[in-house]
Design goal:
The protein contains two helices and 20 strands. With 277 residues, the protein is an alpha+beta fold.
């Protein structure tokens, strides 16, 4: 026979965990790049428990960024970034900027990764890191057929103020390719393709810190993405506010019900103790 008191306590504890998850979602509704968390429940003899917590993979709304190098993924997938220790992570938050040395970085200082491309904008694939670029050095591997990724770098020549010494400006087009441009756009040369990957099961990637994720056995390995890249925009949170409010009402009702179960079980126990005296 199952103990209703123990069942009530366990269910209430998991209900509070669910409430905390919903509150976290709602308080991050305006956090750029935040992924809504969703709990899946399983029912056991001794109460309710989370099967797992998954991320909602669909995209959030686009919002104007602060610079043209800010990026927004229109569709599925993640940008690829590299921490100072060389660890590769994935993010939807495209608050990127070119720093003083020309390196393309996230707001947290991680290097945005990309592929070196030829003059046709095609990825120069290979099984070894790309070390032939005159303006960047490859230090990581990834993507299709282990095509090498590299730090994206557009340094400016101090003698003439031009990118890589010969381009007046840069432009990131919707195919994710970074172009160096000169002569008022008459000269447009592809330099890099922004690293963008997707997962077979994106909802199961592991969050290692706010807004940054790593692959997991459940998510599968990353493959080359095919979404549209929009420059000058960033992605807001993908939290469904009304749905979270509805779930919050459900969990409050669940807590009230378990409180009654616990109270009734306590009264029955007290009556039983009296009868035994």
């Amino acid at each position: 026979m199952n103990d209703p008191f123990i069942t009530g306590i366990n269910t209430q504890r998991k209900s509070m965990d669910w409430m905390n998850l919903l509150v976290t979602n709602m308080t991050n509704i305006y956090t750029p790049g935040y992924r809504e968390r969703k709990a899946n429940f399983g029912t056991f003899l001794q109460g309710a428990t989370f099967d797992d917590i998954r991320l909602k993979a669909w995209q959030g709304k686009a919002y104007p960024g602060t610079a043209p190098e800010n990026l927004y993924i229109e569709g599925k997938g993640f940008f690829v970034v590299k921490k100072p220790n060389g660890k590769i992570l994935y993010t939807r938050l495209g608050e990127f900027a070119f720093k003083g040395d020309g390196t393309y970085k996230t707001k947290d200082g991680f290097n945005v990764q990309g592929y070196i491309v030829n003059d046709k904008g095609e990825i120069m694939s290979g099984s070894s890191p790309q070390a032939s670029s005159p303006h960047a050095k490859a230090e990581s591997r990834g993507g299709p057929d282990f095509s090498a990724m590299t730090d994206i770098k557009l340094w400016r020549d101090p003698s003439n103020g031009k990118y890589l010494g010969k381009y007046d400006e840069f432009k990131i087009k919707k195919d994710g390719i970074v172009y160096g441009q000169a002569e008022k756009g008459k000269v447009s040369v592809p330099l890099y393709k922004i690293g963008h990957v997707k997962f077979p099961n994106a909802a199961q990637v592991t969050e290692v810190q706010d807004g940054y994720y790593d692959e997991s056995p459940e998510s599968g390995k990353p493959v080359l993405g095919n979404a549209i890249i929009r420059s000058g925009l960033i992605e807001m949170a993908n939290v469904h506010f009304r749905q979270n409010i509805s779930h919050l009402a459900e969990v409050k009702m669940q807590i009230e019900m378990t409180n009654k179960i616990i109270q009734t079980s306590k009264q029955l126990l007290e009556e039983s103790m009296k009868l035994m005296q």
